[in-house]
Amino acid sequence: MKSAVVLMNLGTPTAPTKTAVRAFLREFLSDRRVVEVPRVIWMAILYLIILTFRVPGVTKAYQEIWLDNESPLRKITRGQTAKLQQVFNKAYADTENIPQAHYAMTYSGPSLASKVEELEQAGFEHILVLPLYPQFSATTTGSIYDQISRINQQRRNIPQIHVVKQYFDHPLYIAALANTVRQQWQATGKPDKLLMSFHSIPQKYSDAGDPYHQQCLATADLLAQALDLQKEDWSISFQSRLGFSKWLSPYTSETLKLWGKKNINHVDVICPAFAADCLETLEEIEEENREYFIDAGGETYHLIPCLNENDHHIAMMAAIADKYLPKNDTPN
Question: What is the dihedral of CA 112, 115, 121, 122, to 10 degrees?
Fold first, then answer.
């Protein structure tokens, strides 16, 4: 049985231009999983306000982080895929069929539907989808399940697809996070505070049963335990909120402003919900929130990089994949 593992991330504009950014935001923010506001109201907000007034600013932000004519998120995801394939080639060298690593994006492409079509035509019989969202949310991984449902509805011969729902407490994930923190501390010293900043979601989504908040809390607790931190050494916060309704809190920006005013001089920030550095880490956390902290009185500020192509991160992906791959693909 030929098996493929598809890494999935959110997506990114195809270019740092207003046209490309507008197209990406339109697709992303039109997803009913992402925004649950009544459609008539939300479409008016999206087209008349967000896609009209926010696109220039977002475009400028992408231009500042664009790397080698490519989005950092896409470049990193492609690199993760290549390194995962190297691990498969070595681990499964003595098996009949070595699993093949691919990647897809929820928005902007390559789409999961096109990847499934490609893999089916190449004779792959088992597809494992690994969303690069450690904590499950209906706003992220939920959209992937929706896409798979649409893929199945369009076929008589339904492909065998399995989705890894979450890995927020996987020991190798926590160990990889802890390792990156220790590396940062070896280079720049231990800070007064470690802030674990997670992407936020509307509070009402959590109240309705989305498990994301609780899983973020669990990840933060496990990471603090792995680093042997005391309660006063670290905190959790949430970033990237949109609009004026209540989102998961405390907010990252407000936390950093408060810490700066309290004469907390040295802060390190890690973003455990992101598997690859992107606009939300490289611009929002590295630039915007650094400014909030320094302007409020803080002195030293470091963004700890996401796990990206870190060998420990790739080993975690391989271990998760191995759990779900067919038995005839088990490595010797």
Answer: -130
| CA within 13 Å, CB half, 261 | 7
Could you say which DSSP state residue 304 is in?
P
Phi, psi for residue 65 in degrees, rounded to 5: -105, -5
First vs last C-alpha separation in the chain: 16
Question: What distance in Å separates the CA atoms of residue 80 and residue 165, rounded to the nearest whole number?
Answer: 19
Characterise 109 by phi-psi region: left (phi > 0), alpha (psi -120 to 50), beta (else). left
Residue 194's nearest CA partner among 241, 240, 232, 239 is 232
Contacts of 232 (CB under 8 A, 6+ apart): none
Contact status, residue 158 vs residue 125, Cβ threshold 8 Å = no
Query: What integer is the mean pLDDT of 154-181?
Result: 95
Q: Answer whether 77's CB lies under 8 Å from 132's CB.
A: yes
Select from 304, 51, 72, 35 the least CA-distant residue to 188: 304
pLDDT tens-place string over residues 178-221: 999 999 999 999 999 999 999 999 999 999 999 999 999 999 99
Contact (Cβ atoms closer than 8 angstroms) between residue 174 and residue 181: no
Say if CB 228 and CB 143 are below 8 A apart: no
Q: How far apart are CA 284 and CA 288, in angstroms?
A: 5
Write down the pTM of the prediction.
Answer: 0.95
Reported as a single tens digit per residue, the pLDDT across 288-315 is 999 999 999 999 999 999 999 999 999 9
